[in-house]
């Protein structure tokens, strides 16, 4: 049994991962049309390149490593095409709001609550402020910050409230005597305190 396993593994190596016919000659990289991440940065972080054997990279491991290095990327699909092509399709996170932090660079948060750095200042996005804990890129929003994300995403998706423009959400709590209250700043300086 053991000899058969190692024998089959060696045959597979000779047929696929050790076969020069399956060298990557075409590494195709596709991104969203509005993507900020460039092909050069993707190539730097992915650790897959032309000349490698098509079957050498562990696709799942490469995907996980790439996503851990680039928190602003939502997903990456890696596909092999015989005999010599590998395709990467990279989708970036779309910022829903900016998260203001004391003495730290501002970060963005997407509609799923993932926190990531933005390469440009998002002037037209609502600002979430007042959280006590420092958020880190690659982490998921929790507590009142998560509640603010849910609120902003709900407003964005509801056609009935399309005219409502939220400029900020303060998540420090304590408004109206409620520890779980959000203070929502609307355009034209209207303030609404919410809790549920």
How does this structure look, described?
Helices cover 26% and strands 25% of the residues. The chain is α/β, with parallel strands linked by helices and 196 residues long. The radius of gyration is 23 Å and the shape is elongated. The strands form two sheets. Strands 6-5-4-7-8-9-10 form a seven-stranded mixed sheet, with helices on one face.
List the helices and strands and how they pair.
Layout: H1 2-17, E1 26-31, H2 39-46, H3 59-69, E2 73-81, E3 85-92, E4 97-99, E5 107-109, E6 115-116, E7 127-129, H4 143-157, E8 166-170, E9 182-186, E10 190-194
Parallel strand pairs: 1-3, 4-7, 7-8
Antiparallel strand pairs: 2-3, 4-5, 5-6, 8-9, 9-10
Q: What integer value in Å does the Rg equal?
A: 23 Å
Question: What is the H/E order?
Answer: HEHHEEEEEEHEEE
The residue-averaged pLDDT reads 87
Tally of helical runs: 4
Low-confidence stretches: none
Describe the sheet with the most strands: 7 strands, mixed
Task: Return the structural class.
Answer: alpha/beta
Distance between the termini: 61 Å
Strand adjacency order, main sheet:
6-5-4-7-8-9-10
Helical percentage: 25-40%
Shape: elongated
How many strand elements?
A: 10
Strand portion: 25-35%
